[in-house]
Amino acid sequence: MANILFGNVEERVVTRDEFPLEKAREVLKDEIVAVLGYGVQGPAQALNMKENGINVIVGQRKPSPNWDKALADGWEEGVNLFSIEEAAERGTVLQYLLSDAGQKSQWPKIIEMLNEGDMLYFSHGFGITYKDQTGIVPQDNVDVALVAPKGSGTSVRRNFLDGSGINASFAVHQDFTGRAEERAIALGIAIGAGYLFPTTFQNEVYSDLTGERGILIGALSGVMEAQYNVLRKHGHSPSEAFNETVEELTQSLIRLVAENGMDWMYANCSTTAQRGALDWHPRFRDAVAPVFDDLYESVVSGEETRIVLDKNSDPNYRENLAKELKVMHDSEMWQAGAAVRSLRPENWKE
C-alpha cells in the first residue's frame, strides 16, 4: 500500500500503479465470481469484471425485471446466468449484492452453498455488522471481505467506461485462506476502483448509512426543497427558484468543487458570493450539526437497520416506494427541474 497524506492524517491506500489489473487477473485466475443479485451494484460490478477478463457468472431470481435486464445486458441463461442458488453453488467468490433485506431472507440458502476456502464478498457492512438483526454469520472456513464503491452502480459503470474509475473501501472480516486481503483488493481493481482504502465492516456501514441519509441524498434533497420553497414563497418563478437551487449547483459549482476543491470554488466566484457564503457557512454548519449527531446515533444503535429491514421486507415495499417517489416526481420543484433539463443546450432541437 502507498502512504498518502489526507490533510494532516497519513493513510495507506492501494492504487492501480502498485496493484495493476494484470496482477488482479493473476490472483483471480482460478476463481468463479458469482454475482448474486442484479439490482443496484450487481450489473456494474459484473459487467466491469467480465470486460476486465474475470470469470463471472450472475445469479438472479427468475422471473423478474432484473433477470430480463441481465439478459438484455448479454448474460446467457445456463451459460453465465443462473438462479441465485445455482450461481452460489458454482461460485468460489460469492458477491452477495442483494438488497440488505434480500440478504437476510436468502441467507439460510446461501450459507449452504459456501464451501471451504470460498470467499463471501459484500459491498456493504450491513449484514455482518448487524448480525443480531440479519442472522448473517458465516462459517469459520471461508474468507469474508467487502469492497464498497463510493458511488451508485450507475456511477461505477459510467466511470469504468470513461476510464476514470470510482474510489472504494475494502475490509477483511475473516481470513481463512490467508489470501483474503489479496483477493479483496484484486476484486476491487477488477470492478474498476480508482483507488482503494482500508476500513472495517463496522466503519463502512456507519459512514455509509450516515452519508446516504445525510449529505449524499437525504440532507441534500431536504435543503434544496427548503430553499426552493422560500424563493417561491417570496414570488420567484419556478424556473428562477430551480436554477438558483439545483441547476447552478449541479451544472456548475459542484463540478468546480470536484475538480479543485471548495476553497478554489470560493476563490473563483464573485466577491459578493464569496463574502455571503463565508458568513453563512458556519450558521448552516451549526444548525445541522445536532441533526447529524442524532442520525449517527440512530445508525450506531441499530435503529436505522430495524427500519430498513422492517420496511424493505414488506411485500408491498416496491408499490409503497413508487407512491413515495411519485410525490417527489409530481412536486412543482421537480417538475420545474424536468423543464429546466429539457432546455439544456444538448437537448435543443435544430
UniProtKB/TrEMBL annotation:
Residues 200-347 form the KARI C-terminal knotted domain. Keywords: Amino-acid biosynthesis, Branched-chain amino acid biosynthesis, Magnesium, Metal-binding, Oxidoreductase. The keyword Amino-acid biosynthesis applies. Pathway: Amino-acid biosynthesis; L-isoleucine biosynthesis; L-isoleucine from 2-oxobutanoate: step 2/4; Amino-acid biosynthesis; L-valine biosynthesis; L-valine from pyruvate: step 2/4. Substrate binds at S270. Mg(2+) 2 binds at D208, E244, E248. GO terms for biological process: isoleucine biosynthetic process; L-valine biosynthetic process. It is an enzyme of class 1 (oxidoreductase). Its cofactor is Mg(2+). GO terms for molecular function: ketol-acid reductoisomerase activity; metal ion binding. PROSITE patterns: KARI_C, KARI_N. SUPFAM superfamilies: 6-phosphogluconate dehydrogenase C-terminal domain-like, NAD(P)-binding Rossmann-fold domains. InterPro entries: 6-PGluconate_DH-like_C_sf (IPR008927), 6PGD_dom2 (IPR013328), KARI (IPR013023), KARI_C (IPR000506), KARI_N (IPR013116), NAD(P)-bd_dom_sf (IPR036291). Mg(2+) 1 binds at D208, E212. The keyword Signal does not apply. Belongs to the ketol-acid reductoisomerase family. NCBIfam families: ilvC (TIGR00465). This is Ketol-acid reductoisomerase. The lineage of its organism: Bacteria, Bacillati, Chloroflexota, Anaerolineae, Anaerolineales.
